[in-house]
């Protein structure tokens, strides 16, 4: 079984940033999957996934560290930060035996590895990042988001991730009004 | 009763958070009081099209699946769900085009469809994710019971139902069934049902559920333990020997 804590806590680098994808026709979703290396070795199936909606600037950005056991196998999410999510925040499950049980967190929240890893089973509990917490500092821009993610995931060259190719409408002031 | 907050006030405080919306000039995103497997709120998007309103999930169900690498499951699962509810499926999104007076119902239909699709795909993925335990079980049993184990075989219970089980070991003329069980209701109830049926045989085999972690199983452990023994995949060889005895 993989040493998930070892992977999460290790210093990492992005081996290659492929750039943001073209927008999906139906959803305008854009994304990237950047392979991650540890100690100079690009780890099998370990990627930083980034996603957002190209015509919804400055919101709904996610960065997720995920791993698959072998190419083509299903992925296991290890940690995810959702910034200004359009999905209205996150609801933590009840009965999780921690202070976040049943608590709702805001549109910017962190599905922290430490909250979701089970030492007993040596994997992410139930294979899902069910528990999230508020982020402890305000994140106002994409640059701040990128820096936060780099520090949190210990990715030393996070600056390789460019700002998304958002499409700015003449009629749109950016983040939608609630 | 003195310091209790009234139910009316409690409801009034909670209700605005159960449904919320974000607006752009060209679209609105509405969050509903249902949760995707990730814990995010089911969200629909409404926008004008030429002859009415398009209500869609904007690909959020697909994103749930894709985060587990299960995006390829979206098309088939979405089609089967969409047919039953009467909505359409695109490459990544569920949607329906309606007149203005039907928007409310369309929101309910799309949100239900999107939620169901995501749940089905992720639950199926989670079920399959325990292939790792199955691999580990094979290694363990080949070591503990060399050349005495058959894998992925079927065995008939007292009801004549044939149950596919992870492994059957032959020890001193007796059989012991080992079944990997992931911590999901479908897997737990399937194993429990099979074991109850097998235990009703005139000469029942030994019945052993193999889980990743008993602690993580919670109340599901008690369900499994009603029908057979329960061990963890990481336990020593002698535990497997004792469980099979």
What does it look like?
The complex is a heterodimer of chains A (178) and B (245). Chain A has three helices and eleven strands; from the N terminus they run H-E-E-E-E-E-E-E-E-H-E-E-E-H. Chain A is an alpha+beta fold and 178 residues long. Mean pLDDT of chain A is 88; it is low at 172-178. Chain B is an alpha+beta fold. Chain B is 44% helix and 26% strand. Chain B is built from nine helices and 13 strands. The mean pLDDT of chain B is 89. The interface between A and B is large, with 53 and 48 residues.
Distinctive features:
heterodimer; A: 178 residues; alpha+beta; seven-stranded antiparallel β-sheet; disordered C terminus; B: 245 residues; six-stranded antiparallel β-sheet; 44% helix; 26% strand; elongated
Short summary:
Helices cover 12% and strands 31% of the residues of chain A. Chain A contains three helices and eleven strands, in the order αββββββββαβββα. Chain A has a seven-stranded antiparallel beta sheet. In chain A, strands 6-7 form a two-stranded antiparallel ribbon. In chain A, strands 9-10 form a two-stranded antiparallel ribbon.
Secondary structure layout plus pairing:
The complex is a heterodimer of chains A (178) and B (245).
Chain A: H1 4-9, E1 13-14, E2 29-38, E3 41-53, E4 61-68, E5 75-83, E6 90-91, E7 104-105, E8 109-111, H2 113-116, E9 117-118, E10 123-124, E11 133-134, H3 142-153
Antiparallel strand pairs in A: 1-2, 2-3, 3-4, 4-5, 5-8, 6-7, 8-11, 9-10
Chain B: H1 7-18, E1 20-23, E2 28-35, E3 41-49, E4 52-56, H2 60-66, H3 74-85, E5 88-89, E6 94-98, H4 103-129, H5 131-144, E7 149-151, E8 154-156, E9 162-164, E10 167-171, E11 174-180, H6 185-199, E12 206-211, H7 214-217, H8 219-227, E13 229-232, H9 237-244
Parallel strand pairs in B: 11-12, 12-13
Antiparallel strand pairs in B: 1-2, 2-3, 3-4, 4-6, 5-6, 7-10, 8-9, 10-11
Helix pairs in contact in B: 2-4, 3-4, 5-9, 6-8
